[in-house]
Every structure is written in C-alpha cells, then in structure tokens.
Amino acid sequence: MTDVVAGIIWQNGRYLGVQRPQGKRHAGFWEFPGGKVDPGEYTAEALIRELHEELGIRVTTLTYWREKVHEYPELTVRLSFFHIRDFVGIPSPLEGQELRWLTPAQALELPFLEADRDIIEELSAFAKRAGVSPG
C-alpha cells in the first residue's frame, strides 16, 4: 500500500487540476496535485512539501476532508484528500504538467485518474446542491 496525498486547491469557486506529463505513469490523465508520503512524514506535512515542490506555492491553511483506498492493477494507494483555500504564490507547472482552474462541472469533462473520478463527481454534486455557478 502506497500512501498518497492530494490537495483540492480552491480559488474563486474553481479548483486546480493538473495533467500528468509525458514520461510519467498515467501520462495525459488529470488529477489533484500532491504525491507520495515519505516514511515518517505526516500526511499534512507531505502535502505541503509536495505542493511546494510541484507548484511552488506555500500552503498556509489546509483542511483534511477524507481518505479512500484505490486498487490499480499495478499498485494500491491510500489517498488522503485535503481542501486548501489559503496559500501564498501562484501555482506554476514546475514538473512540466499542465494546470487548469476548473469548475466542478468542467472537471467532469476531463479524463481524471480512476482514483479521483468519484471525488470530482462528489464535488460537482455538492456544487449543484449549493447552487454554485458552473462559471
């Protein structure tokens, strides 16, 4: 089992999606930014580190949301998702990935990783119930 963290980074009613670059496993698929938890590292610490390395931002506030386990044919991951609404800096593609600010409805149209599909569906359903505009 591999422990992984993912940040749902919000700005103006949209969250940040990243597309996995060529040369990485699952290249071309979209995901929430984050990465693997190092041995001895807490999940929140791992996410703060990963987002600084991957996007060049400094997270100032994060809120744990939920955990799930997903089995890919080649590995099983335990994902911890956090909502992030406060950070310093402008997200930049430091690892060659494409970045997009997405409404919950727009995210449904992109090929997100299998492990993230139910998460984006849940975020979209919540946005509809809350009356959040798709634009």
Number of helices: 3
| Element string (H = helix, E = strand) | EEEEHEEEHH
Radius of gyration: 14 Å
CATH architecture descriptor name: Alpha-Beta Complex
Q: How many domains is the backbone divided into?
A: 1
Mean pLDDT: 93
* Low-pLDDT segments, ≥5 res: none
Query: In CATH, what is the homologous superfamily?
Result: Nucleoside Triphosphate Pyrophosphohydrolase
What is CATH's topology name? Nucleoside Triphosphate Pyrophosphohydrolase
List the helices and strands and how they pair.
Blueprint: E1 2-11, E2 14-19, E3 30-31, E4 34-36, H1 43-55, E5 58-71, E6 76-88, E7 98-102, H2 104-107, H3 117-130
Parallel strand pairs: 1-6
Antiparallel strand pairs: 1-2, 1-4, 2-3, 2-7, 5-6
Keywords:
39% strand, Nucleoside Triphosphate Pyrophosphohydrolase, 3 helices, alpha+beta, 7-stranded mixed sheet, 135 residues, globular, single chain
Overview of the molecule:
With 135 residues, this protein is an alpha+beta fold. The chain has a single domain, classed as Nucleoside Triphosphate Pyrophosphohydrolase. The chain contains three helices and seven strands. The N and C termini lie far apart (38 Å).
